[in-house]
Structure formats: structure tokens, C-alpha cells
Specification:
The complex is a heterodimer of chains A (110) and B (110). Chain A is an all-beta fold and 110 residues long. Chain A is 0% helix and 62% strand. In chain A, the strands form two sheets. In chain A, strands 2, 4, 5, 6, 9, 10 and 11 form a seven-stranded mixed β-sheet that branches. In chain A, a hairpin with a 2-residue loop joins strand 5 and strand 6. Chain A starts with a strand and ends with a strand. With 110 residues, chain B is mainly beta. In chain B, strands 2, 4, 5, 9, 10 and 11 form a six-stranded mixed β-sheet that branches. In chain B, strands 1-3-8-7-6 form a five-stranded antiparallel β-sheet, with no helix packed on it. The chains are: A mainly beta (110), B mainly beta (110). The interface between A and B is medium-sized, with 21 and 22 residues.
Amino acid sequence: SQTIHQWPATLVQPVGSPLSLECTVEGTSNPNLYWYRQAAGRGLQLLFYSVGIGQISSEVPQNLSASRPQDRQFILSSKKLLLSDSGFYLCAWRETYEQYFGPGTRLTVT
Amino acid sequence: GQNIDQPTEMTATEGAIVQINCTYQTSGFNGLFWYQQHAGEAPTFLSYNVLDGLEEKGRFSSFLSRSKGYSYLLLKELQMKDSASYLCAVDGGATNKLIFGTGTLLAVQP
């Protein structure tokens, strides 16, 4: 069965510091991968999606970037965090008719 | 444009039935998803509808009318653990991106 991992589970970072969040998927090949952000009390905002290695599409222009160095690895990065980057970051994978989310990383920028 | 509407909050009684509605306007349609999200946790997949009609899965059922741009999630025999946010999402195009509504917060009372 497929499993999706995200780490870390929680993170507290100062404004202006860099960020790297990692997501890996097991039990599937060439999945579509997605990064979402959910601000407190808000809906899910799609940040990036990838249909294959090295293929990244950005949905919202901002100070975040994403990379997919391997088929089942998806990384979200920032060079300098803003206060507004605080939120719940969720990685998801999609296969045909189902889309599943990882456990998420709760980021607080102070 | 792309738009998905759900009620913000609903309240229901333990043991009762509740229907959560979702209306959508998207440029394309490849299916509609429902997710359950407990506070502080990642969304979990509940159902997927691509054809008109009712899909039943235990206590949960989901209905779709493509001509009306309308779906509902029906929860029967409500339990306290069903208190959560319920997210409606539409796959609106060829890139398999899900567009999410802001979610309906359901409170189940004794």
C-alpha cells in the first residue's frame, strides 16, 4: 500500500531564516505530487504541483520554491521566511481517482 | 473563474442525519472529492464522484449532479467523532489539480 511521509512534524523558525520541508512517497511510481498550505482557520491553498522528476508548476507567486529531485521525493524550500509563511503545510500524491495527504508540517514563523 | 461554495458551519445531533452541500463553478470537471479534517490533522479521503448519482460507503454517502454543479455529503447515524471540517474539492482540468472549498465545520452535539 502507498504511504506518504513528511518531516518535520512541527517547526518554529525566525523571520528571514531558510526553510526545507521534505515529502516522500512509498508504494507508487510516478505519482503527481502537490504542496498545499493551510493558514489557521482557512482553506487549502495549492502552492506547487509536479507531474514528474524536475517538473514543477507554481500556482502562487511568493518566496517559496519546490523541487522534485527523485520520482517519489518532493521538497519545499524558502531562502528567507516571512511571518505570513506560517501555516500547516501538506504534501499530497494523486493516482487516478484518489488523492491522499501526508501528515503535514506545522510551521510557525516568529 | 473557479469557485466552490460550502456552508461555513453546521450543527447536528448525535444519531441524526446531516447533509453538507457543495456547489461549484469550474472551467472543467474531472471529478469531485470529499475529505474529512479533524482539528490539527491532515485531511482524510472520504469519497470521489465523477458520474451523476449517489455513492454509498458505510455511514457516508456522496451525491453528484454535474448539470447543476452540485454535490452533497450525507452522514448517517452521527457520532461525536464525526465533529470535523468537511472539505469539498473539484478536479477542474487536465492537470489533476484539486480546487478546494473553504470547508464546512460540523459540530455534533449529544
